[in-house]
Amino acid sequence: MTLRRTAPAVLLGSVLALTGCTTGGAPAPEDQAAAVLDTARAYQSAAVARDWRRTCELSTARYRAGTVQQCTARKTGSTPAPAPEATADSTATHKPPAYADGSTMRPLPSRTSRPGPDRASTGPVTPQGQPVDVPASGDHPAGYGVLLTYTVTWPTETSTARKALRLVQEEGAWRVDQTEDVHDGDEAMGRPVQDALAGRP
Asked: DSSP assignment, residue 172?
């Protein structure tokens, strides 16, 4: 009787297939990868800098839900509110409370007067690896997923933020159609971009 020996590599591939441990989707072609990465980096850098108009320009029409101007106005809250009408009470001068001897109370120190940065400081946005193929999910069409990281320091502690972006072609240009935070659980199966972008609105 002849015994057949199975190569270790075949056994390892079978185990990985059964456990679901894959390396992720197919990478984007070289002629498209650079443009995808450039758009993803530009979008996230603008988001970090709170350049909302730029993020709207780099979003798909579906994702920005309107024109670039409408998207920018929503993100910045720039729609002007009607000015309140002046009343006698609003224009009256109010004196601070006084003690019996005529002296006034000293104002309490403000809790927001402590020195410190107004917002977190961030490092440069850096792509991790190449864009990978991501299937359609919910309202999002199929496209390419990109993993981006950048450091966040607030006020003195530094952490690393991880973002997954879905990019699709629209009118001949790459545009962002989805952004998600990448959590530790998304790393478990070795496909953080696909898992972060799957099944989320």
From this structure: T
Residue-wise pLDDT tens for the chain (201 aa)? 444 444 433 333 333 333 333 335 788 888 899 999 999 999 999 999 999 999 999 999 999 999 999 999 999 987 644 545 545 444 555 565 555 555 555 655 544 444 555 778 999 999 999 999 999 999 999 999 999 999 999 888 999 999 999 999 999 999 999 999 999 888 888 899 999 999 665
| Domain range list for the chain | 25-75+119-201
> What is the value of pTM for the model shown?
0.68
Residues pairing with 142 in the sheet? none
For residues 47 and 55, what is the distance between their CA atoms, to the nearest angstrom? 6
**In 11-142, which ranges are E strands?**
121-122, 126-127, 132-134
| Residues 192, 182 contacting (CB under 8 angstroms) | yes
At the topology level of CATH, where does 25-75+119-201 sit? Nuclear Transport Factor 2; Chain: A, (3.10.450)
Q: Shortest CA distance to 162 belongs to which of 189, 139, 180, 177?
A: 180
The pair of three-digit structure tokens given for residue 25, joined into one six-digit string:
């989707």
Q: Which helix (H) or strand (E) holds 175?
A: strand 173-181
Q: How many beta carbons lie within 10 A of that of residue 9, not counting itself?
A: 8
CA pair distance 47, 72, nearest whole angstrom? 12
**Dihedrals φ, ψ of 116, to 5°?**
160, 165
Q: HSE-up of 99 (CA within 13 Å, CB side)?
A: 5
